[in-house]
Design goal:
Layout: H1 2-23, H2 33-40, E1 68-76, E2 79-86, E3 89-98, E4 114-116, E5 119-124, E6 127-132, E7 135-141, H3 148-157, H4 160-166
Antiparallel strand pairs: 1-2, 2-3, 3-7, 4-5, 5-6, 6-7
Length: about 170
């Protein structure tokens, strides 16, 4: 009986040491830690004070047609977003955001070689976007069958000329 208590004590001691060693290890930085630091600096705001109200963007979104349904899902200062659904399935997200106050956001369009409806365009993964003045208009695929050609077609359905006048 003394032997079994001794083994239990050693086991408890080893477990305590293992927990102490693993619990004191420094955590790896989060993938969002730099963004958190940047946004926490004094004087940095998430949305510029003079950003356009999100409700102003709604009239520039394309209408539902040909079996597609459009449902607005988010609206806040500087941003509006709508889901594009077909047959009850979310196939894409449509959005407009005001780039005012977001350093460097419009710079990625300076080197754009592609244009959609006369506006500089970028493609990155499952998203295609155009820059209309200070506004970024984006279509993101949520379904693999909704491809780059579909995203480009839906970008052209936005009232981009009207959005350009909003400035």
């Amino acid at each position: 009986m003394l032997f079994s208590n001794w083994r239990g004590s050693i086991f408890a001691l080893m477990l305590s040491v293992a927990l102490l060693l693993t619990g004191c290890q420094p955590k790896a930085p989060s993938q969002f830690s730099q963004a958190q630091q940047d946004s926490s600096k004094k004087g940095v705001t998430a949305v510029a004070k003079d950003a356009t109200q999100g409700s102003e963007f709604n009239k520039f979104f394309p209408r539902a047609a040909n079996g597609y349904a459009r449902t607005f899902s988010q609206e806040k200062k500087g941003f509006a977003e709508a889901k594009l659904n077909k047959d009850g399935k979310n196939v894409a997200m449509l959005s407009i955001n005001d780039t005012t106050g977001i350093p460097g956001s419009a710079q990625k369009y300076a080197a754009a070689t592609e244009k959609i409806a006369g506006y500089p365009a970028t493609n990155l993964g499952n998203q295609t976007a155009v820059l209309v003045g200070k506004y970024q208009v984006k279509v993101q695929s949520r379904d693999p069958l909704f491809d780059k050609t579909d995203r480009q077609a839906w970008l052209q359905k936005f009232d981009l000329k009207g959005l350009e006048k909003l400035q």
